[in-house]
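Inverse folding, one chain.
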């Protein structure tokens, strides 16, 4: 015997009240089922939104990572340029009293720099090199071997000429 039946028998509730409570319970069960479906739908929609936000966040991270990589590369190129520039400036051996022309090749073009006789000898022996700060400017720097090797390592496009090194005892034929 259920609680409902006991309450009806004892006369504490009327039949109408019992039916009302039963209908209310049925409706509540139906609503909770409906609400569960609604809650599940809301939960699924919320999860989709969260997934979308997470995906956008990951895309943004990838874009930021790529931008950081590009920025770091640009900074590295700038540092390399200024380091090469500093080496060229601090080791420049160009003589203001140079009277001889020294011809060399750059990108299938013949270029000329003014040198002294001693500089010509050192360039031919591979003890000096010729570098350039900027591609557009025809200003060439005569630099010693150690500086030329550093430039060759960090910015090879800035070193235009560096002959293979010869011993001091070997004779050079300029013509």
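Residues assigned per position:
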């Amino acid at each position: 015997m259920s609680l409902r039946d006991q309450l009806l028998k004892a006369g504490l509730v009327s039949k109408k009240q019992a039916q009302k409570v039963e209908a209310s319970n049925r409706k509540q069960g139906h609503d909770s089922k409906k609400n569960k479906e609604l809650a599940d739908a809301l939960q699924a929609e919320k999860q989709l939104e969260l997934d979308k936000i997470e995906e956008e966040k990951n895309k943004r991270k990838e874009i930021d990572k790529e931008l950081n990589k590009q920025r770091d590369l640009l900074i590295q190129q700038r540092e390399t340029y200024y380091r090469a520039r500093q080496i060229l400036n601090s080791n420049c051996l160009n003589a203001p009293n140079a009277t001889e022309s020294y011809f060399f090749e750059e990108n299938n073009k013949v270029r000329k720099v003014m040198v002294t006789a001693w500089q010509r000898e050192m360039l031919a022996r591979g003890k000096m090199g010729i570098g350039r700060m900027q591609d557009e400017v025809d200003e060439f720097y005569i630099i010693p071997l150690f500086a030329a090797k550093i430039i060759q390592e960090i910015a090879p496009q800035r070193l235009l000429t560096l002959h293979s090194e010869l011993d001091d005892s070997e004779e050079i034929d300029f013509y």
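The mean pLDDT is 86. The CA atoms of residues 99 and 108 lie 25 Å apart.
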